[in-house]
Amino acid sequence: MADVVKDEKDKIRDDLKRKIYDDNHAFDEDDKSEVKKFIGKQKVHRLCPYLDTINRQVLDFDFEKLCSVSLSRINVYACLVCGKYFQGRGTNTHAYTHSVSESHHVFLNLHTLKFYCLPDNYEIIDSSLDDIKYVLNPTFDSDHIKCVDVSDKMSRAIDGTLYLPGIVGLNNIKANDYCNVILQALSHVTPLRDYFLREINYARVKRPPGDSMFLLVQRFGELMRKLWNPRNFKAHVSPHEMLQAVVLWSKKKFQITQQGDPVEFLSWFLNALHMALNGTKKSDSSIIYKSFLGSMRIYTRKIPATELDDKQKAAMLLTTEYQEVITESPFLYLTCDLPPPPLFKDETVENIIPQVNLYTLLAKFNSVSEKEYKTVKEDFMKRFEIIQLPQYLILYIKRFTKNTFFVEKNPTIVNFPVKNIDFGDILTPEVKARHKQTIYNLVANIVHDGEPGKGTYRVHLLHKGTGKWYEMQDLHVTDILPQMITLTEAYIQIYERKED
């Protein structure tokens, strides 16, 4: 009789165990109470004989977390032997089938970060697996973040490659180099990086019900932590999940299969992040505005039509319509206009590339220089006065001009110093007096090579821990002398204000 009772208890335990691990099982209330009792009694296995079958070289957690068979994102497990993703771990699931057919036994739940042995279906607890967990979800505490910019320690990937955290290549899936250079440049903006390295900083941000735009923030945070991960398995990162979120939330304006403009992407991305973080018009409402937001005054006056005589023009200039209008406008970056290249070349200047000084371009914002803007009906003269410099100043050097037939690129080289650039020279004395510091250093320089609409992008980055400059073009990372940076066709630059 006792044996019958024991067999019945074992049958109930086995039945409940099957229900727990069957992902599709719907519990009723009686089941739930029994399951809770069962879970409280079950023992967790701590030893697994299959740990030596794990192949860390094939593990890649940069891609979308979806099942390779069903393409579902629900309850996905990574096989730690072959690196593929499968759904579930119950008896009829894809992970279970894969385990039985291929004799692959160790799996990681990509959401809960727990390890399981299949088909035996028990949890594995072993400290030797912590490195895999860290690669999937790198975490940074405040002490670690403080040391990021002073450390020159190299890290070693699993294949023996040495790399500097923060100076790792980004995979070019097809034509996303225009996104890669922006993501790399933003990863070296210190307050932005420090904010996104700690997930707790933005974990409490609440979005309206049904709004999933916050996914963009999460993906950028994940990418930032992977770029600065000192314990990576490989010396490069794939921005696949980040770019999938970009394609989705830009409504396919920015694609990974078609070349785009980094300036358009930068403008959209900064504003999208600001909105996703519940930013408002206030300058301190998000980390984006705190880092990049500046302010300027725009003086606009209308120009009379050229066909009118002097007397009519003078009369018009006295009317209200033709008086100068002053508006204040915030900005996240400044657009610098290059002088037009020479139209004709003779034998003596055939190989000479035109050059211009950066301060000549910045004269546009000194509140004195005027620039003509033409519309279909009216013409305007505008001058600009910067009244607030941001902590990080982004300059966009406008190289491409569109006409009726094609896009033309201006190859003019901009001469600029890498250190100690005084932007106070373009401020009025009253505005400069309000700024404690107006000296800036270059931290990122994005370059376009080749023809307009085609070509490629690369970025130069300053690694503060070593004090060295690096050139990054997708997966290729090389060190570069700062003197060589000034000889390139600079397109976008990020300057950092020096500390007092």
Automatic annotation (TrEMBL):
It is found in: Nucleus. Keywords: Cell cycle, Cell division, Hydrolase, Isopeptide bond, Metal-binding, mRNA processing, mRNA splicing, Nucleus, Phosphoprotein, Spliceosome, Ubl conjugation, Ubl conjugation pathway, Zinc, Zinc-finger. The keyword Acetylation does not apply. GO terms for cellular component: spliceosomal complex. GO terms for molecular function: cysteine-type deubiquitinase activity; zinc ion binding. CDD domains: Peptidase_C19M (cd02669). Pfam families: UCH, zf-UBP. It comes from the Eukaryota. Gene3D superfamilies: Cysteine proteinases, Zinc/RING finger domain, C3HC4 (zinc finger). The U4/U6-U5 tri-snRNP complex is a building block of the precatalytic spliceosome (spliceosome B complex). Component of the U4/U6-U5 tri-snRNP complex composed of the U4, U6 and U5 snRNAs and at least PRPF3, PRPF4, PRPF6, PRPF8, PRPF31, SNRNP200, TXNL4A, SNRNP40, SNRPB, SNRPD1, SNRPD2, SNRPD3, SNRPE, SNRPF, SNRPG, DDX23, CD2BP2, PPIH, SNU13, EFTUD2, SART1 and USP39, plus LSM2, LSM3, LSM4, LSM5, LSM6, LSM7 and LSM8. Belongs to the peptidase C19 family. This is Ubiquitin carboxyl-terminal hydrolase 39. It comes from Thrips palmi (Melon thrips).
